[in-house]
């Protein structure tokens, strides 16, 4: 049974609880639809993010390229189109919230934040170094624009559920977007959170699963199969959108539909780990290993070919 | 203790305080994990249903939902039994509440042996140790209902996370119902030996001190409800005056108040520090008083430790 927060409260009031004023009718903001120009721009942003990730990781000498590259198109669509943010005022109360549940994709988040102007792109070169604001996994107390400290898998969706509950309590228009890994779905806590989101009828919550099919020890299907993903989420009371996670049109369209959905929505985005870099695509080994300088050059060549780099 | 002594469980004081705070603070939300009747958060839930979230039997999700609500600008109180709050959800508390210093107040009930008949699986004897080990975490163990209420109210003014350890059983009211973070209080004066106690063991320490006074031994009794940050000044003065210290807690001997006191005094004023605590064992089913006797947490156990500590001092 799925009940909205409002029904839940009403039922309690009928039961004789103290009179509680319901929040005014709230609805998650709905983004305008995509144009061909915007689509091209977002694709360019995604490529730029991938280049920034490769450069930052090569400089850092460690980190997670595979799972950062796989969700670059999703993150580009969110940060450069769908989400309303104010880089000048990172804590703008009405901003949309992004929770990187798969915190090891931090380099991608940092690239997106730098791209939006939360801090200088030069700072990406300090990734993972002592006293840097750019920690190996996101630290909300250090990095402007980072909403929650994540990195320990399985916890991000629960944080997002709490945030969405808070937004609903206040009748806020901002939405919560949580990006999860598919291997992460092996954590039982994700399903506790999934249950809670549906129970509380969280219209303002959108989860995206980066379904790249690989985890550190191998293919997710071999390590501990979380499939069938769509059926599981549906059974937990979610609206499910299955999309190609590298198709900006599909990502954008599903996000807009998810914004208007009643109850929580999840995008299961089929992706390729290491997407865009020939020698990283579909390779488990590139989950948590930085490219050498030489590999970095090849990777940038793959991503932007003869175009100017940097 | 006279017949007029008031008895109240610290969890009952919590339920009372929450309802009062709920009226004062719109931004206060409460979470529980299917134990709202036992933890007494139900009183708040009945009064403010829109600000109460039952996570069901899912403590890890509850802790992180509390973190999320804190990120949305709320002050979140999260409650369940101590064993689950600090055991099942330790890493959620560590990484998602304490590391980002979020204003989540973890109010755990049913700590210690006095859970009674439910037995070892439900008797948290390690919670102080594991919460104390988290950087920036306040750890508070009130001695009675009055102090619990004061600590819960004070926790609102503490920036960041707080752990407050409450019990199931009724305990005598012995404090004046004041609590200042990082401060302990001296409930009895004396210079022969200092008993530093927390929680239900404070009343027992006072009882031991009364008996020893009849034998001509003057004990100082300190209620160290502020286990972290510890009241170092108070401790230092006691150690210098008495030169022998006994600690008393309803917790394992490893990592709790006794460890905190020994760590501090060892580096700053080395004197004998003898712990009265559970001796690295699990609990079991039984009547709370019978359990306290079985595991050596009686006034006479404190008394014996005091005598030994004074002998060690020479």
Identify the quaternary structure here: heterodimer
Q: Tell me, what's the shape of chain B? A: globular
Low-confidence stretches of chain A: 1-23
**Tally of individual helices of chain A:** 11
What is the overall shape of chain A?
A: globular
CATH class of chain A: Alpha Beta
User: Could you tell me the radius of gyration of chain A in angstroms?
Assistant: 19 Å
Q: Largest chain interface and its two residue counts?
A: A-B, 39 and 33 residues
The count of DSSP E runs of length 2 or more, i.e. the number of strands of chain A, is 7
Spatial arrangement of strands, main beta sheet of chain B: 3-2-4-5-7-6-12
The percent range for helix content of chain A is 40-55%
Helix and strand composition category of chain A: alpha/beta
> What is the radius of gyration of chain B computed over CA atoms, rounded to a whole number of angstroms?
19 Å
Report strand order across the widest sheet of chain A: 1-2-3-7-6
Helix content of chain B: 40-55%
Using the 3D structure, state the CATH architecture of the largest domain in chain B.
3-Layer(aba) Sandwich
Structure description:
The complex is a heterodimer of chains A (310) and B (314). Chain A has 310 residues and is an alpha/beta fold. Chain A has one domain: 3-Layer(aba) Sandwich (Rossmann fold). Chain A is 40% helix and 11% strand. In chain A, strand 2, helix 7 and strand 3 form a beta-alpha-beta unit. In chain A, helix 2 crosses helix 5, helix 2 runs antiparallel to helix 11 and helix 4 runs parallel beside helix 5. The termini of chain A are far apart. In chain A, 53% of the residues are buried. Chain B folds into 2 domains: 166 residues, Thiamin diphosphate (ThDP)-binding fold, Pyr/PP domains (Rossmann fold, 3-Layer(aba) Sandwich); 129 residues, Rossmann fold. Helix content of chain B is 41%, strand content 21%. In chain B, helix 9 packs across helix 13. Chain B has 314 residues and is of the alpha/beta class. In chain B, strands 3-2-4-5-7-6-12 form a 7-stranded mixed beta sheet, with helices on both faces. Chain B has a 5-stranded mixed beta sheet with strand order 9-11-10-13-14, sandwiched between helices. The chains are: A alpha/beta (310), B alpha/beta (314). At the A-B interface, helix 1, helix 6 and helix 7 of A face helix 4 and helix 6 of B.
């Amino acid at each position: 049974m799925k009940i909205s927060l409002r029904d839940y409260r009403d039922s309690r009031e009928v039961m004789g609880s103290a009179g509680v004023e319901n929040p005014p009718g709230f609805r998650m903001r709905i983004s305008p639809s995509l144009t061909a120009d915007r689509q091209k721009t977002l694709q360019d942003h995604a490529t730029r993010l991938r280049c920034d990730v490769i450069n930052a990781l090569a400089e850092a000498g460690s980190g997670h390229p595979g799972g950062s590259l796989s969700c670059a198109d999703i993150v580009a669509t969110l940060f450069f189109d769908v989400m309303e943010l104010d880089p000048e005022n990172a804590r703008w109360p009405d901003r949309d919230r992004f929770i990187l549940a798969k915190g090891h994709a931090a380099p991608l988040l940092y690239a997106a934040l730098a791209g939006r102007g939360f801090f200088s792109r030069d700072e990406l070169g300090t990734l993972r170094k002592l006293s840097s604001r750019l920690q190996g996994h996101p630290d909300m107390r250090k990095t402007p624009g980072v909403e929650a400290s994540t990195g320990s898998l399985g916890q991000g969706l629960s944080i997002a559920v709490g945030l969405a509950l808070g937004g609903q309590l206040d009748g806020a228009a901002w939405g919560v977007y949580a990006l999860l890994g598919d291997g992460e779905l092996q954590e039982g806590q994700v399903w506790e959170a999934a249950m809670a989101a549906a129970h509380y009828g969280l219209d303002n919550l959108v989860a995206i699963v980066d379904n790249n099919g690989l985890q550190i020890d191998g293919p997710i299907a071999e390590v501990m199969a979380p499939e069938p993903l769509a059926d599981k989420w549906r059974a937990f009371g979610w609206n499910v959108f299955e999309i190609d996670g590298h198709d900006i049109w599909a990502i954008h369209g599903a996000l807009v539909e998810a914004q208007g959905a009643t109850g929580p929505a999840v995008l299961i985005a089929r992706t390729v780990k290491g997407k865009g870099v020939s020698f990283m695509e579909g390779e488990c080994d590139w989950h948590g290993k930085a490219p050498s300088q030489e590999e970095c050059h090849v990777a940038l060549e793959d991503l932007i070919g003869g175009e100017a780099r940097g | 203790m006279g017949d007029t002594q008031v008895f109240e469980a610290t969890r009952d004081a919590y339920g009372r305080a929450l309802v009062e705070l709920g009226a004062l603070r719109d931004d206060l939300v409460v979470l529980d994990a299917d134990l709202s009747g036992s933890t007494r958060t139900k009183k708040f839930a009945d009064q403010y249903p829109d600000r109460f979230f039952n996570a069901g039997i899912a403590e890890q999700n509850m802790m992180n939902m509390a973190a999320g609500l804190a990120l949305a600008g709320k002050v979140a109180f999260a409650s369940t039994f101590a064993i689950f709050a600090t055991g099942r959800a330790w890493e959620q508390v560590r990484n998602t509440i304490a590391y980002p210093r979020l204003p989540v107040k973890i109010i755990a009930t049913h700590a210690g042996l006095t859970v009674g008949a439910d037995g070892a699986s439900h008797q948290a004897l390690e919670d102080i140790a594991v919460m104390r080990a988290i950087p920036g975490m306040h750890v508070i163990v009130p001695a009675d209902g009055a102090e619990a209420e004061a600590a819960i109210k004070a926790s609102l003014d503490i920036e960041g996370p707080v752990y407050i350890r409450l019990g199931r059983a009724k305990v005598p009211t012995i404090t004046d119902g004041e609590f200042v973070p990082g401060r302990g209080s001296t409930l009895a004066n004396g210079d022969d030996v200092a008993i530093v106690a927390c929680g239900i063991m404070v009343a027992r320490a006072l009882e031991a001190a009364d008996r020893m006074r009849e034998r001509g031994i003057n004990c100082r009794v300190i209620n160290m409800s502020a286990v972290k940050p510890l009241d170092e000044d108070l401790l230092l003065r006691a150690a210098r005056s008495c030169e022998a210290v006994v600690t008393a807690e309803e917790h394992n001997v490893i990592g709790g108040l006794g460890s905190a006191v020994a760590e501090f005094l060892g580096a700053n004023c080395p004197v004998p520090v003898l712990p009265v605590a559970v001796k690295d064992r699990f609990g079991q089913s039984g009547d709370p008083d019978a359990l306290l006797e079985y595991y050596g947490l009686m006034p006479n156990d404190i008394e014996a430790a005091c005598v030994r500590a004074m002998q060690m001092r020479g």
